[in-house]
Amino acid sequence: MSPKAKDSVISLPEKCLLTTRTVLKSYMGDYIKRWHPPVPPLLALCCFLIAERHRGDASEWSPYINILPKTYTCPVYFSEDIIDLLPRSLQKKATEQKEQFQELYCSSLMFFRSLQPLFTEPTEELFTQDALRWAWCSVNTRTVYMEHDQSEYLSREKDVYALAPYLDLLNHCPNVQVEAGFNKETRRYEVKSVQGCKKFQQVFINYGPHDNHRLLLEYGFVASGNPQSVVYVDLGTLKLCLDEKDKQLTQKLLYLRDNDFLRNLTFGMDGPSWRLMTALRLLSLKPEQYSSWKNVLLGAAVSQDREEWCIHSALKLCNNLTDDNVKALERLSQLKQDANLSRLEQLRVVESLRQEEQRILEHTRVVLQNLWGQ
Ligand SMILES: C[S@@+](CC[C@H](N)C(=O)[O-])C[C@H]1O[C@@H](n2cnc3c(N)ncnc32)[C@H](O)[C@@H]1O
Q1: pTM (predicted TM-score)
Q2: What positions belong to coiled-coil segments (predicted)?
Q3: Rounded to an integer, what distance in angstroms lies between the CA atom of residue 208 and that of residue 180?
Q4: Using a 6 Å CB cutoff, which residues line ligand 1?
Q5: How far does the centroid of ligand 1 lie from the alpha carbon of residue 220, in Å?
Q6: What is the CATH number of domain 18-154?
Q7: Which atom of ligand 1 is nearest to the CA of 173?
Q8: CATH assignment of 231-373?
């Protein structure tokens, strides 16, 4: 029978969940407990996954580990030329992700070595950078949120992970609603459908109100028609449409930055966001309109000609971002021609992000052109 509203989609007993408790109770537990400084919860899970994958059929988790993806399409797997094809505002976050991973790997080498008594093979051959990248993405893309009491044996980083076999086969749909969490009474991780699911249709859950940048960064995919998605205007692009002769430009940019108006400037399906238009209004002001700066940030429009300047500038930004998308899509289709399978999958994810952004920009342009014509 298909789940109706409030019916359980899946209910998993606690003993099926793989958490840091599982790891601490395992053969690896004493090594983690002895290690100083304490190991981060995420690393404990990663090391256990790597070790269990290595144990093969001897591992009681092998039916689960065998069906995990062998590789992922999160930016931590991307080479520099693929990172360069991401929208500018995402490139920085993707690079940060790679650096964060690299730091974790380098700072964990001594701990990996301490696990040597558990293996006959040198730990350098087991706990490689590739193995950690795989485990790190397995944890980041597949765990469900579950708070655990702080363990005295683990570092203070949040321990909110649970690998949930079978439950983690469910894909994300931005338009569905579910209630999910660990039920302390039944001691089961439960997912309930809010709207119900149609018979013979794929059952989806909702990973959270994430835009496509976040989905790509954290899960390695893009949801088409994602209502949360927007196109970000990065500072470099914003500066392109500004008047360099404006003597107050530096001061205006500082004022915007101090008032937190230089980030989260976006275009959506319904045109430029309020934050973007507010930033443009401030940037549009003439020297004699200095006294209006504060009011503009509170939402005031100053004059008809300044409003026209803002719409014109928003159109320039929209066109610039569209050109950037077109170039990236052309380059992506060239790179796809001689890419191997894993690279091809990465290129396809970036391509779908660019296509989604193109769709949003087309809608934005129509909205702006209508405003311009008014
Ligand atoms: C928790 S797993 C879901 C199960 C996964 N599809 C599988 O077969 O193992 C999360 C991963 O599934 C994929 N995924 C989830 N929802 C998706 C969607 N709407 N479109 C494309 N891929 C999706 C992404 O690769 C994501 O990292």
Answers
A1: 0.94
A2: none
A3: 11
A4: 141-142, 168-173, 219-221, 223
A5: 8
A6: 3.90.1410.10
A7: 19
A8: 3.90.1420
